[in-house]
Amino acid sequence: MQKHQSVWMHIGAGSFHRAHQAWYLHRLIQQGDDSWSIALGNIRNDANVLLNNLAEQNGEYTLETVSPEGERHYEKITSIRKILHWDEKLSELAKQASAKETRVIAFTVTEGGYYLTPEHELDSEQVDIKADLNGEMRTIYGTLAHILSDRLAAHGEPVTLLNCDNLRHNGERFRHGFLSFLKLKGETALYEWVKTQTRSPNTMVDRITPRPTPDVAERVKAQTGWDDKAPVMGESFIQWVIEDDFINGRPALEQVGVEMVESVLPWEEAKIRILNATHSCIAWAGTLTGFNYIDDSTRQEPIKEMAWKYVTEDVIPSLSPSPLDLEKYRDVVLERFSNPYIKDTNQRVAADGLSKIPGFITPTLLECYQRKHTPTATAVLPALFFVFLKDWAKGKLPYEYQDGVLDATYFRALINSDNALAQFVANETLFGSLAKSPEFYSLMEKTVANVEQWIKSPEQSL
Ligand code: NAD
User: Fold this and answer.
1) Which of 21, 218, 253, 319 lies most in the core, judged by the most C-beta atoms within 10 Å?
2) Nearest C-alpha to atom 39 of ligand 1 is from which residue?
3) How far from 97 is each of 137, 138, 228, CA to CA, in Å?
4) Which residues form the Mannitol dehydrogenase C-terminal domain (predicted)?
5) Which atom of ligand 1 is nearest to the CA of 44?
């Protein structure tokens, strides 16, 4: 194949893209397949300095990775071959999107970049969405509507729209949002074209990538001699699972360890229940027992044991049979969380508990009851969160608790009432049909008492 014949255009010049997707495409080039390259741009103007720095370095930068044992590794990433500079009209993005060689348009615009309601519908009341419906380009929807209509006018070759953000069913949910946006905007021809000439496979992406601090550039300089103006750092672990549904070709990603599958569902469920739920459990337990960081909290044997039991006793039976080795996945996740070189805060991970309980935890509780197994180990998670909320209401948390859906007045009153736990458990948004289950209430009563006892002597097992 001809050199750089196909372009992967990426929207969202954050750290994660450069530590993840760009690394895989770089690896492919290293293996001798240089048929694909990346063109990188951004919707907002907050990445201009970075884009300029990258342009000065011909798109190249250093990726530092660190293993749980503290081994650091440095690699020059070479897959970004074109920088799409920002201007108000996003003219370079539009031009690149219209090029025939652009076969994939991928994006990382954060979880908040999709403006969906809890029912996964486009939230057209949001200011940014209203602005885009009036022709602006503040969001992925307004931007794609604009640049894809240019592509349709130019030649209308098909293109894959690939969501690489951390969102359950990310391809489907983005696509539903985008089609709803086009309908509301009255873009009939574009709507029909997007429906037939684009695809949006679901993907599961994974690599912890903190925002780079100044010491990354210092280490890169010391190790490689290069005064890199745009280094990134991440953990050594990396994973990418993609539904194999591309409409106009794709890089041979399976050659570099990407799992190309028919359905991403088993991976997504494993990630949400084993990685995300466990992460929150550790953050709540760690906070309640005086720790600030995820790695310190995970290395406390009783906390690790709590997480291990939850996954082993309740989650694995729920997700089996699975194409994944779930025991191994559990062990790798706990090892990653213990990595002392990735200083992730309990505050960041403890956030948004009110969304995480129904999204990450209640499905496991329900499935345990369905198979007539009492979810003793899973009940610890909402019990920890309840005790955590009590500390929040008393102003005893060591940091500000962030939760996008927290109605502070309602929850303060609930926690201060005589039957706080009964009200908490009866909340259907959190616990679905279990909110009416006396059996579940009695399990929670016992578990909250155990958790409160444990906090007094956290060196003991729960
Ligand atoms: P980052 O803060 O470095 O970059 C965020 C990028 O998104 C910026 O380019 C910003 O301009 C853009 N952006 C923010 N809000 C937007 C909006 N509403 N519309 C359009 N663009 C918007 O973040 P990052 O580390 O690159 O992470 C980005 C996303 O990648 C995460 O939100 C997550 O979905 C996914 N991800 C990140 C990690 C990680 O560890 N960092 C791991 C897995 C997945």
Assistant:
1) 21
2) 209
3) 15, 17, 29
4) 264-449
5) 11
